[in-house]
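Shipment paperwork, digital attachment
Item: protein structure file
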Amino acid sequence: MFNPIYEKLAKIAVEYSLEVEKGQEVAITGPVLAKDLFQALQIEILKAGAYPSLLAGLEGSREIFFKYATEEQLLHVNKIEELTLKKFDRYIEIRAGYNTRRLSTVEPQKLMTFANSPERKELIEIFEKRTFKGEMKWVVVPFPCQAFAQEANMDLFSYSDFINKSLFLDKENPVDEWRGIKKKQDLIVKSLNNVDKIHVLGENTDLTLSVKGRKWINCSGQGNLPDGEVFTGPIEDSANGHIKFTYPGIYLGREVENIYLEFKDGKVIHGTAEKGKEVLEEILKIEGANKIGEFAIGTNYGITVFTKNMLFDEKMGGTMHCALGLGIKETGSNNNSTIHWDILKDMKVPGSKILADGTVIYEEGKWKLDLSE
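Attachment content:
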């Protein structure tokens, strides 16, 4: 039988994150190495009276696709993916892998052709609309694997413990822990929803943007596990200034290090990187990817190290991140793109701060807001 820790994780996903109801169609995707978590999720979905569909991927299938696919095939969206995003009520993605470098030899142009497919863009728009209307709920959940442990410079046992603590699986009732986080972050977003101008200052960074009229979202276990961030979609033409990101941006297994971007009237006018510059240049050519679709602040202080896995990294307490490309419609964002690429900056560095309408609300990795009810 599977490790009982997966039963705890499955309950969080099915009962708390997705609130699965009787009669709903629930898709579960991920690699076959996550068999134990597939089974734990299947059991909880069946207990809820819903209908699970297990869509497990085989090792090497992605590599084969990019090696042999023609341009026509790169642009095509397969029918299983289309049906899943158009028709299912709930969607669970198990995040794990065999090899984090599996696509490192793929030509950047092939990756961009795949990402910029008109069919894929249309499907993403449909998925976004269904999510916005509440017709579809989704959640990403982690499964400890050797590849991700190695990427994080950990052994598998330490990495499993890292995952458990980031999800509060070491607590008697993890769901109650996530409910407590939600309550605290409700106060943060309530305050931020009244803000017009955001000003980010830090190492080689002086960036302003407007969030006037945009909604801030409380991420406390509803879409990603682990979770812990607040974010919004800035006004599309408002970003001005420059920012130097601390951590590498990772796109389809390719690392782009020491990213520096300059913005004018919302668009990137200059971008460079010390490693992976050609990937950055290709990304910026994608429609909508030269604008900030998301501005966010990480709130999960249980995540203390960068693991090269954005499921964890973007939630790291003491950091902020911007996503180039697609903005989340729930925030009011109108930025459309086939890409949503998160890049992180360490805000614990001395002198780092975030101002809202001229008032310091975040300094050197800590909130300065009054969070008393």
